[in-house]
Amino acid sequence: MSQPVADNAFSLSDASRARIEALVERYPTKASALMPCIWTIQDELGHVPPAGIDFLVGKLEMTPARVHEVLSFYTMFRTEPQAEYVLQVCHNISCHIMGARPLIAHLEKRLGIRLGETTPDGRFALEGAECLGACGHGPCLQLGRHLYEYLTPEKADDLLESLKRGEIPRADTDRELED
Amino acid sequence: MTPKELQILSARFGRDNGHKLAVYEAEGGYTALRMALSGMQPSEVREVVKDAGLRGRGGAGFPTGVKWGFVPEGADMIYFMVNADESEPGTFKDRYLLDYDPHQTIEGTIISCFAVNARTAFIYIRGEFGWLVDRVQKAVDEAYAAGYLGRNILGSGYDLDMIVHKGAGAYICGEETGLINSIEGRKGQPSIKPPFPAVQGFLDKPTIVNNVESVASVPWILNNGAAAYKAIGTEKSCGTKLFSVSGPVKRPGVYEIPLGLSFREFFHEWLGGMADGEELKAVIVGGSSVPVLPAADIMNCNLDYESLGQAGTMLGSGGMIVIPERSDMVELIQVLMHFYYDESCGQCTPCREGTGWLYRIVKRLRGGEGSAKDLDLIEHVCGGMAGLTICPLADAAVMPMRSFLDKFRPEFEALIREPVPAVSSSRWPRGEQE
Fold first, then answer.
1. For B194-213, what is each residue's pLDDT tens digit?
2. pLDDT tens string A56-74
3. B4-230 — its CATH code?
4. Where are the alpha helices (DSSP H) in B205-304?
5. Alpha carbon distance B6, B343 (integer Å)
6. Does any domain span residue A65?
7. Do A98 and B171 touch (CB under 8 A)?
């Protein structure tokens, strides 16, 4: 269980606080706004810290247990600080057939870590993921909102090089964000 | 490729600006909504969709118009949910619909809501599609600004609010009661039916949950009439269906086909056959949860509910996984069993324990530590799972498990006779080397 933390110890931007107020207004019940409120905190902070849980408990008038069970049920919600770049490689059936295993082996070699580990400098984490909905475009990996598809060893290397320089390259899905 | 007159869902696929309201309107978008709101009764809309024979495109294939009819007359508050939690391995069709043509789904949703008298709609998009959530939200904003959503839509007196809701990585939320619980701000664990959601769902109010592709079909059906839709396909499989094709074929991707098309023609003419150097071994035709068919069996099937049912499999979501000859079938089923084990929500013992048992037995077989008894044990565990749980996830694991063992038993037996080191058959298909 989290220790009670004063609200002023919880550094959430005014924009995120305003968004949470708007979500609570918009959803039919306070409880139903829980998932989008968690997303709002996580989008800003990278994870939901103990003070964030206390904040949600107060804002949505629910028990801490309810917030904890939702946070732990959904694999995309995180309660611990994450590596700067979390690379999630799909290892489900279609990507497996198209080369997910050699892709993972290649990334393990380049990063010097095993699947499930984080580099000592805290910059890269390598994770396996279940189907990412890119089955005809595999093998693929996801980095936050970016989905990299049709990967080859060369494309994986290019991606890592860019990230090491602190640049997130354009993903196959990023055209969706343009108008 | 889909003939133009049969492009009911895919007319704007692959086009750069197909997602914009102006393009959609210029090509006849929102005329069906105008027609529905200016003179049709909700019951008339329900009848047209029922007469068209549209069946739920998420996997179960239940007639959409019939489902709508289960909402009790005179209910005071009704909710509508579009299921875009597309997570069935092999399935990536709804992503195309929302990516290239979000307004088609939005228009279909508004008409569907009008048909059941819902006043609040949710579009539940899987969390991994974060970029799609923005895409759809922008389109919803456009629709509000144009007067297609909100209060007094097009002066008809009908009000509808639409919320785009982002999931967070749970396969089980694609099950309709799991989805409802998730939007209520709970773990996405399914509920026992009855009561069915159409009677008692979100916040205990009548709730309709429909797949993206189902609602996206509605505007065309209204514009062209039930008879025109029914004229496509077979007697029991009306209209067109999206198939998302993965695996080493020449042209993987999303295809709209008239139901009833022969697999042979689809495979050779549309997909271009296998990629160079690959041979066809088997096909999972409707998403990872349906039984696998060896190449010789699938070649004699037509792509419709009846023909695939007779062959011992299901049309499902249309997530077609093409398996090449080089694949180790025991390795592939291990990958799938890990998935179901990982995604079981844990509330029903047969599923929570059974999926773990199946994964561990297959893993042990591949590790060279299996025995002949393990093949009987697989069957025994499957028998303790199928049909014995609140939702179909246990069955979704059992169907591929049983069919892989049944159709490719010699590969399992070989591992017992002559244990081999587990070498992965996953490889780069394009010839690149490490």
1. 999 999 999 999 999 999 99
2. 999 999 999 999 999 999 9
3. 3.40.50.11540
4. 212-216, 218-224, 226-230, 263-265, 295-298
5. 37
6. yes
7. no
Confidence grade of residue A1 (pLDDT, cut at 50, 70, 90): very low
Which of the four pLDDT bands, split at 50, 70 and 90, describes residue A9?
A: low
A93 touches B at CB < 8 Å: yes
Identify which of B245, B296, B201, B342 has the alpha carbon closest to the alpha carbon of residue A134.
Answer: B245
B19, B83, B255, B335: best to mutate for the A interface, most A CBs within 10 A: B335
Q: How far apart are CA B367 and CA A88, in angstroms?
A: 26
Residue A1 in any domain: the answer is no
Residue A25 CB burial class (10 angstroms; 0-12, 13-18, ≥19): exposed
- Report the complex ipTM: 0.94
Q: What is the mean pLDDT of residues B5-22?
A: 92
What pLDDT does A178 receive? 55
Q: Count the domains in chain A.
A: 2
Distance between A51 CA and the closest CA of chain B, angstroms: 19
- Rounded CA-CA distance B111/B45 in Å is 8
**A77-86 burial by CB neighbour count: b if 16+ within 10 A, else e?**
bbeeeebebb
Put simply, whether B134 touches A (Cβ < 8 Å) is yes
CB B57 within 8 A of CB B214: yes
Q: Which CATH class is domain B240-324?
A: alpha beta
